[in-house]
Write a structure and sequence with these properties.
It is a single chain. With about 400 residues, the protein is mainly α. It contains 16 helices and six strands. Strands 1-2 form a two-stranded antiparallel sheet. Strands 3-4 form a two-stranded antiparallel ribbon. A two-stranded antiparallel sheet has the order 5-6. The two termini are about 50 Å apart.
Length: about 400
């Protein structure tokens, strides 16, 4: 889970942020160390592979699946075969290390389909590309996974450079890391014309991206948010972590467990959240028992001090509509409609008779139904009469159950 969480941060948060920063400084940016050169290269690659439609996002997801769960496994086993020995002559693949096995992409596998769906949708969100509306349904996921089978993946080619990197990570060669830091300026000087070409290409790609994006940013970083179950963040980490566990023949982890671990959720047993829930419950009990207003309390809580203070709530604000009618935000008027053929004119007349009020504007779920300023303007006489005479069932955008 931590591995998947780290990949999410690098791919969907850090690299888009770095690209946006470099794009803002495109005219003045000049790398001075190896980290800035690496950021520039990643930004160029991100713009080179900028998707034009959602199909490109599916291709990207399929490529990532091949990289993480097939090619990277093959590279690891190429660097350290099953019969590899340590410097001491002991078997390299001995506990706690276990040799991984690659997994074949299966569009019918729910985990594989979930990975393709989450990765494709996150890629689309970064580049402001519309995504399918049914992507969160089982049918939608399987359809996207099936679509991913149409794209060819890069065949694995052993890399000696990656083998050296893996060896250095396993052997924890600190000297190599120090050499890389000390040699940052040398790397900038050694690149020479290549760095100039890289900067020129970056400027060109940024200009093209800004032109095609119009007024929108060329990309957007996805900040990890565990509490939104529809943003594909936990979906991506869940699918990626479980596919990784399949490589090492580990037991899969449930979606909620992944959410708790990735979001670092601590059970709120002795926290402010639990205290607030208890205080709310007490007030709800008072409401059920019809307690007096004087018995109800507002509470201010700060466990860091600690401090708990309570006060009586103030009276609700009253508004005087007529000399005989005063209301508050808690008042609710109900008109019993026995005849389904009732219209706005009937309601207006009843309100006028009962409360001595003439409505000006009528809204239904935020949508305007009758606007006094428009209906009583010149030339709207016929429209006003038709609206007032029309049955409510025809006038309001009611759904089947509401009718």
């Amino acid at each position: 889970v931590e591995w998947a969480r780290d990949k999410f941060g690098k791919v969907f948060t850090q690299r888009p942020k770095s690209l946006l920063k470099l794009a803002d400084e495109v005219d003045s940016f000049k790398p001075t160390n190896s980290q800035e050169i690496k950021a520039l290269r990643e930004a160029v690659i991100l713009l080179r592979k900028r998707p034009q439609n959602f199909d490109d996002c599916i291709r990207y997801a399929r490529t990532k699946f091949q990289k993480y769960f097939v090619n990277d496994i093959r590279q690891l086993l190429y660097t350290y075969p099953l019969d590899a020995k340590t410097k001491e002559g002991n078997p390299f693949w001995s506990l706690p290390k276990r040799p991984p096995t690659e997994i074949k992409f299966d569009p019918e596998n729910p985990l594989h389909a979930a990975f393709i769906t989450a990765a494709a949708n996150l890629r689309a969100k970064i580049f402001n590309i519309p995504a399918p509306k049914d992507a969160r349904t089982d049918k939608g996921r399987l359809a996207l996974a099936q679509e991913a089978t149409k794209y060819q993946v890069v065949e694995f080619i052993p890399s000696q450079e990656k083998a050296k990197q893996l060896s250095s990570e396993v052997d924890k060669e600190k000297s190599q890391q120090q050499t890389q830091q000390e040699g940052g300026e040398d790397e900038v000087n050694s690149l020479g014309d290549d760095l100039v070409k890289l900067l020129s290409e970056f400027k060109k790609l940024v200009a093209e991206a800004k032109k095609s994006a119009s007024d929108k940013p060329i990309c957007a970083a996805e900040e990890f948010e565990k509490d939104d179950d529809t943003n594909f963040h936990i979906d991506f980490i869940h699918a990626m972590a479980n596919c990784r566990s399949s490589n090492y023949k580990l037991d899969p982890m449930e979606w909620m467990t992944v959410k708790i671990k990735a979001g670092r959720i601590v059970p709120a047993l002795a926290t402010t959240t639990a205290c607030v829930a208890g205080l709310q419950t007490i007030e709800l009990v008072k409401l059920v028992k019809n307690c007096k207003v004087e018995d109800v309390k507002n509470a201010f809580l700060n466990l860091a001090v600690p401090l708990l203070s309570q006060s009586e709530p103030g009276p609700d604000i009253k508004t005087k509509l007529t000399p005989d009618l005063t209301v508050s935000i808690w008042d609710r008027w109900e008109l019993k409609i026995e005849n389904k053929a009732i219209n706005l004119r009937h309601i207006f007349e009843e309100l006028l008779e009962k409360y001595k009020l003439h409505p000006k504007d009528v809204f239904y779920k935020g949508s305007p139904i009758f606007m006094h300023a428009i209906m009583y303007s010149h030339g709207k006489e016929q429209t006003r009469q038709e609206t007032l005479q029309k049955n409510l069932t025809d006038l309001l955008p009611l759904e089947g159950g509401e009718k």
